[in-house]
């Protein structure tokens, strides 16, 4: 955590000394990156992996863990949390 804090401080100081020109360029580059089809594919894959992991975790908590088990994730979470 301290490493990230120092990285932010150093980045801020360097950015302030360059007048923000490089920071603006970085912002434009990130905007272009986020708009690419490849980035959208990465996000879709990450969401799919997260959903699969959560389904597997729900199966483990329920005690009926089977490799590749499906099911309605929302229903399992509601059962874990209990009635609202």
Detail the poorly predicted runs.
Answer: none
> Can you tell me the number of structural domains?
1
**Topology as H/E string?**
HHHH
Number of helices: 4
What shape does the CA trace take?
elongated
Overall residue-averaged pLDDT value: 78
Radius of gyration: 21 Å
Biggest sheet descriptor: none
Q: How far is it from the N-terminal to the C-terminal residue, by CA?
A: 36 Å
Q: Into which percentage range does the β-strand content fall?
A: under 5%
Please bin the fraction of helical residues. over 70%
Would you count the extended β strands for me? 0
Structural overview:
By secondary structure, this protein is mainly alpha-helical. It has one domain. The chain is built from four helices and no strands. The mean pLDDT is about 80.
């Amino acid at each position: 955590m301290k490493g990230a804090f120092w990285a932010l401080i150093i980045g801020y100081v360097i950015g302030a000394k360059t007048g923000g020109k490089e920071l603006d360029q970085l912002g434009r580059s990130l905007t272009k990156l986020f708009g690419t089809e490849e980035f959208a594919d990465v996000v879709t894959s990450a969401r799919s992996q997260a959903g699969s992991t959560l389904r597997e975790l729900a199966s483990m908590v329920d005690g009926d863990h089977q490799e590749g088990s499906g099911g309605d994730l929302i229903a399992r979470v509601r059962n874990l949390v209990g009635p609202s």
